[in-house]
Design goal:
Shape: globular
Oligomer: single chain
CATH architecture: Up-down Bundle
CATH topology: Growth Hormone, Chain: A
CATH superfamily: MFS general substrate transporter like domains
Order of helices and strands: HHHHHHHHHHHHH
Number of domains: 1
Number of helices: 13
Mean pLDDT: 75
Strand content: under 5%
Low-confidence stretches: 1-13, 408-422
Structural class: mainly alpha
Number of strands: 0
Largest sheet: none
């Protein structure tokens, strides 16, 4: 922990924009978001064109994207705690860029199903890169600024929720699938180059058990189970993951069936959600020091319940658009609340493993939800599935209530929980 403290004290504590680690990771995230949004919309429109709106293939896009996250986040989180974060992030981006080259070759000489590999590989590598970024932020950002930094990242995501669908649709319609996938590879390559400008990784002390991967993995589970906050977060992740999974593959059918519009109109619904997220991120950033992350999380999940049910039953484009904006405004409360709680109540040495334990709960339940969404849609109808998702969000908001009792001093050892033995 000594090295971590030295790294933190060496940077400005007044302005997060003066923090070179934050700026570098933000720049990298900007490039990745651009590539990912172009990829996501290009693949979605390409698959619907090829398969004539086949819901099974449309759902498969989401399954291919999130199943690897569920499988590899256990391993990725543990290795992120073992490996040097800068080096890990650079290599993940470079390997992702190289993999895109193979995908393009497969598309040229093979079947169109090779398109799913573009999502598969980057989803796997992100499970090693993402916890490494969290680890760097834990090392180099003062505790009182963590929630503001999370709000900043949320705002960037919101910006791409607004412009991403338009850019993705435009690139695919103007240049086709090959250029779209190629742009994604270029963005990963540029991201890796940006991350090379990060300062050298902090050296950590060698220990006897450093190479005992199984022990470190088991310690991660014991650590989460020993902390009431993180254990409660596990239940919240599971319930909300199932809620999100049920509706994620069906959003395009809101446009097609409920609103009677062409599939390309999905971009306007996502843009409305992104505009809301952008506004919500700014609001949360402004009030981040006046409200606890637990309250942020509860407010966000409860709002998601209300607006999800409304979107599922609305047949008016204007009403659906308004609900999408409102849903977007409150979404940053969930994202910022979750990340702040994890960073605030986890020791630096366990950041990767905490993510590796909690993320699979969310992703696993989300994949289950995605897998049954198409099946449930037939007997329950589209509106019925959205209602079930809303009920799950309500349960999730109730599970946050016990976290209000947690002390707000930001200490990892002052909330009466045992630390796992090293």
């Amino acid at each position: 922990m000594q090295a971590s403290n030295e790294g933190t004290s060496a940077i400005p504590t007044g302005n997060i924009f003066a923090n070179r680690i934050v700026l570098a990771i933000m720049s990298s995230n900007f490039l990745l978001q651009l590539g990912i949004w172009i990829r996501n919309f290009a693949i979605l429109l390409y698959v619907t064109d090829i398969t004539n709106n086949n819901p099974l293939y449309v759902s498969l896009i989401s399954v291919v994207e999130f199943t690897p996250i569920f499988i590899f986040s256990f391993i990725g989180g543990t290795f992120a705690d073992r490996w040097k974060p800068k080096l890990t992030m650079v290599w993940c981006d470079l390997l992702s860029a190289v993999s895109i080259g193979f995908v393009l070759l497969a598309l040229l000489f093979g079947s169109w199903q090779a398109i799913f590999l573009a999502t598969l590989v980057s989803a796997i590598l992100s499970q090693f890169s993402m916890p490494s970024a969290m680890k760097l932020l834990k090392q180099h950002v003062p505790g009182e600024q963590l929630q503001s930094v999370m709000a900043l990242f949320q705002s960037l995501m919101a910006i791409f929720m607004v412009i991403g669908p338009v850019i993705g649709t435009l690139v695919y319609q103007r240049f086709g699938i090959y250029v779209s996938i190629g742009v994604m590879g270029a963005m990963f390559l540029l991201s890796g180059l940006v991350l090379m400008f990060l300062p050298r990784d902090l050296e950590k002390e060698k220990t006897e058990v450093e190479n005992n991967f199984k022990k470190e993995l088991a310690d991660g589970f014991r650590y989460v189970m020993s902390k009431k906050v993180l254990k409660s977060m596990g239940g919240i992740f599971a319930v909300c993951g199932l809620a999100v999974g049920l509706i994620s593959p069906l959003m395009i059918f809101i446009a097609i069936e409920n609103l009677g519009m062409p599939k390309e109109s999905l971009q306007w619904l996502l843009m409305a959600n992104g505009i809301g997220m952008l506004a919500g991120g700014g609001i949360v950033m402004a009030f981040s020091k006046k409200i606890s992350p637990q309250k942020l999380l509860a407010i966000g999940i409860f709002a998601s319940m209300l607006f999800t049910v409304g979107i599922g039953w609305s047949t008016s484009f204007v009403v659906t658009l308004v609900l999408q904006v409102l849903n977007g405004i409150f979404f940053p409360c969930i994202h910022i609340g979750i990340n702040t709680i994890i960073l605030k109540y986890s020791d630096e040495a366990f950041i990767g493993r905490v993510n590796g334990v909690l993320s699979p709960l969310f992703m696993g339940m989300m994949v289950i939800g995605m897998s049954v969404a198409g099946i449930l849609k037939i007997p329950l109808t589209l509106s019925g599935v959205y209602t079930v998702s809303g009920i799950l969000f309500l349960i999730g908001s109730l599970l946050v209530v016990p976290l209000f009792k947690v002390k707000e001093d930001g200490s990892n050892v002052s909330i009466g929980e045992k630390q796992p033995q090293s």
